[in-house]
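Recall that a protein's primary structure is simply its ordered list of amino acids. Everything else, from secondary elements to tertiary packing, is in principle encoded there. The following example makes that idea concrete.
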Amino acid sequence: MLIDHAYAELGLAPGASPAEVKAAWRRLVSQWHPDRNKTGSALARMQRINTAYEQIRLTGFEPGSAAANDTQAAPPPAPRGRTTRRRVRLTLEEAALGCVKVLRGKTTNECERCDGRGYRVLTGACGVCKGHGVVRQPAWYGWVSTSATCGACHGERVAREVCDGCEGAGRITRTYRHSVRIPAGVRHDDVLQTAQADDIELHVELSAHKIFILDDDGILRCEMPVDGFAWMTNRWVDVPTLTGMQQMRLQRGHHVYRLRGQGFPSERRGERGDFVVTVVPTFPESLSAEQEALLDRLSAASAGPLRTWQRTLRAWDRGRGKKSSTP
């Protein structure tokens, strides 16, 4: 491949700087690499691009040098896109069980086709200024003419055209909409990398919960009031968990209960830990007449040692009265 043809293959004018050559090669690789470009001509075009780059690169070394003979030297890798950082707010339920979040937004990046210049360099001299970089402008009455920078090439003297990728802006704004799967067990301030085409970095924020508290050690806790009489009689009560309501049996005298496997995962994508529930028995400040009557009936129906004690106490009291009435 002739050197002039090599520059033309990269869309450059002969004599372009090494930085321009490298930037043009990277831009074209990003556009024509078979992994990204599925057209039938992508592979052949990619081979021509690499051959042109190698031809230009080798001309920058003195003949006979070791670098000139190193035809196996690999070109530099294409750069990654700019990372977009976003925050994603999750509830404790979403963080514990995993979820799918839909991300919408816009990204503005430098145009890869023109490296942010807004134009593409063509082969040959500028057709407007004939490669001089300036154009003549007639003055009043045509007596004196002045020179001005060529508006077509902006004084660079080589032919160029407006980039059709960014329409001359040098930057491209794209909208995105991605469904991102959040793994179970993420914590506050965790950072997640998405596997989407756009390089998005997610920073996790956990919202404060009205019922649950997640300790720093990963234990999920909840404090709830329960009816004191239900607590005294070992009744079943409904307890909120991350997956919904669940029944738990109260035990008189016990205030702290541990529900196995109902808490927060100990590690990302790991098994769920324990859920610690603290109950606070509550009693009415004053009893209604109906409640008083029910308590009296409950007391009267008492059995076991209490009933035996009550019979003994009544017998003793009757015997004491008889002794006091004897003359």
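The CA atoms of residues 113 and 165 lie 7 Å apart. The chain has four domains: 3-69, 84-205, 209-282, 289-317.
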